[in-house]
Amino acid sequence: LAIKPSELANRRPTDVLFLVLFVIFSLLPQLGLAGYALFGGAGNAREATSQLHLPPELFQVIGCAMVLCLLTGIAFLQFTRCFPIRLIIYTAIVGSAGMLALIGVTLAFGLIPEDLDMPSDDFSRVAVRRGGDLMILAAVLELMVVCCFWQEIRLSIAVLRSTSTFLWDVPSVSLLYPLLFGVMHVAGLLLWACAVAGAAELLQEEKGLGKTLREEYAAQSIFGLLLCYFWGNGLVTALSGFATARVASEWYFAEQPDKRKVGARALEAVRLGLQKHGGSMALGALLLAFIRVLNLLFFWAGRERRRLPDDSRPRRCWLGLREAVAGCLEAAARFASKQAYVEVALSGCSFFQGAGRAASRMASAPKRFAAVEGAGAMQRATSEVLLVGVAGCAAGFIWAMRNIEVDQDDPVDIVSGGPYGHGLGKMTLVQAVVPACFGAWLVAESMLHPVSVATSSILHCWLSEDLSAAGAHVPKPLRSLLELQGDDDAFVEHYA
After folding, report:
1. What does residue 308 show for φ and ψ, rounded to 5 degrees?
2. Taking all residues of the chain, what is their mean pLDDT, rounded to a whole number?
3. How far is 402 from 330, CA to CA, in rounded Å?
4. I need a labelling partner for 321 at 20 to 30 A (CA). Which of 80, 101, 107, 225 fits?
5. Alpha-carbon span 140 to 381, nearest angstrom
6. Residue 321, pLDDT score
7. CA-based end-to-end distance of the chain
8. Is residue 362 predicted with pLDDT exceeding 50?
9. Tally: H helices and E strands in the chain
10. What residue ranges in 154-200 does DSSP mark as E strands?
11. What is the DSSP code (8-state) at residue 474?
């Protein structure tokens, strides 16, 4: 079961060794290389930085896109709280099955309009009809899967509605955390960029350590820098996940009148995470960083191998399969580490103990985890596309408005840009939209990560009560789920 904040504060720190290793082998080397780039060496990095001139319009576009995405994200959180999520999911299920069935019937029974160009030979007509049969079969299979997962789908809807209520009750998670951890990510990226500049300048030395690294350990130095970046980035992400999971668990177990007061302990959760479980988060981030570097190694080796003209097709297929397996392993590691951080936040255990608890909980309820995590991933992907799309469309619209005074005899080219205008008008359409989408993606990632972690945390909390979550503290959507069954005992028996 989740423990109280006072009990968590009294727990012994976990996996402290790995936090020390992070400071020694990642943070201090990056600080040293960044200092060498800024204050030592031949000054090549400082000279290159001083000669780097970015157009001010670029920063205007990114800043405006980030602000727009933030405002859209806040409106979206309110939208998900007020709009019936079950309607969205049910519409997606019924709509996709109905669309497959409609297209399948149209192809299988030859109901295609005559004005469409269709293949006239017999083989193609038979292939089209068999394709229609497969679509009808896919629609039937989808409905069968929905029937098998019906209770889990209802549970996922209730958990997502509870997540929306949590984010609205505790605005510090949806507003303060993205800002705080976004600044941490940007600071880490700038530190790593300075470290890369320092390493590049060090490798150019004609004698001493730089010459030795360049001649004997060049590849190891590159992958070491990548490991440092992934390790630091993963540590910040882990801290964000821990803090969100801790606040979500406190909100879940708080009584209804006290749920809105949980937000006052948002920064306390961050402090407890660093003080008590910084080592556990450093350990999880290190394991994930190793897998990411391994994935990059496979990717780089595969691309290098495919450049050979005499490479065989089976060999290329093997390299592609190896990269796909490495990508799947990285995705599985990200999912497992998120669940482990949730258990660490709930029970105050070490990283491996949290991973074991999460694995045991998922093994006891695989359908529930699959349904809730799948629905959460679908909501996050849809929301991210929506937020980035709104920012991109807004940037394109503003660009068009800035170029509306261009002479009709000299139309604006989306590649070369327009001869008149100012600000966005001096940029091409691609130069205006791509930075806007990038800035919006950064904000969307920062805002939607707490949503994903909170969804998993609420599910863990609900399952930690042995599926008898009918107390007054339970969020209303989950209590309504029990009431809709008409018989609580039958519902618990179904999930046992």
Report:
1. -75, 130
2. 79
3. 44
4. 225
5. 26
6. 83
7. 17
8. yes
9. 19, 0
10. none
11. S
Full 3-state SS string of 102-119 = HHHHHHHCCCCCCCCCCC
* Structure tokens belonging to residue 124: 């193609």
Q: Round to whole Å and give the CA distance between 455 and 378.
A: 12
Q: Are 249 and 457 in contact (CB under 8 A)?
A: yes
This model's pTM is above 0.90: no
- Lookup: tokens for 101: 């069935």
The token pair that represents 42 in the structure block: 């031949």
Sequence letter at residue 276: K
Phi, psi of 418 (to 5 degrees): -100, 155
Structure token pair of residue 34: 């960044």
**Residues 6+ away with beta carbon under 8 Å from 466:** none
Which two three-digit tokens encode residue 26?
A: 């990642």
Measured between alpha carbons, how far is 265 from 270 in angstroms, rounded to an integer?
A: 9
Tell the residue number behind the tokens 């949730």, with chain if given.
342
**Distances from the Cα of 350 to the Cα of 43, 236, 287, 344, 391, angstroms:** 45, 17, 14, 6, 41
Per-residue pLDDT of 202-254, as tens digits, reads 888 777 777 888 888 888 888 899 999 999 999 999 999 999 999 999 999 88
